[in-house]
Design goal:
This is FMN-binding negative transcriptional regulator. The protein is of the alpha+beta class and 203 residues long. The protein has one domain: Pnp Oxidase, Chain A. The two termini are 27 Å apart. It contains seven helices and six strands. It is elongated. Strands 1-2-3-6-5-4 form a six-stranded antiparallel β-barrel, surrounded by four helices.
Length: 203
Amino acid sequence: MKIFDDFSNDDARDLITAYPLGWVVAPGHGVDAASLLPLLGEYDSDGRLVRLIGHMSRRNALYDALAPEGTALILFTGPHAYISPEHARRRDWGPTWNYAQLRVEARLVFTPEATGAAVDRIVAHMESGRKTPWSKEEIAHRYHGMLKAIIGFRAEVTAMAGRFKLGQDEADPVLANILDTLDDPALVQWMRRFNPGRADETE
């Protein structure tokens, strides 16, 4: 349904921010040229995703497949769960799966000069909010050796599509029941986001 394909720049940004581990694939290069990698987005003044910043091992098959630059398909998966008729409180209702995903096509360019900065950014993002955030200075004797084994990159976005199947097609009573019974706070939050005003938290 087309309704599942409608999303905003903010939706894309928040999904990548919350779920930064994405599949990076080099189409046409075999099954080894696909890897899960942590990625951070960069956005223009309108909030539109324009590039992704990351790093990978120089031994990763993606490095040989994409160097010095190549087209990559990048897949992000957000919250997801099996939705049972038990959640809907209707035995005559068919089970389904709710999920959020983004599909990004990008021109990936390796940036060895920016490897350290790419690592610093993902560490700062993931350590943010921790009681005692980790710092690279804590492994100073090993850090530079580790850095030589990886390489930074930027992925310039050329196309993006998404699918946010989050209960938009459900009748209001069914949606309210799913939100009330589903034991997945993250998915519930995204379902409410895509169904504003349809099932208040007080119901």
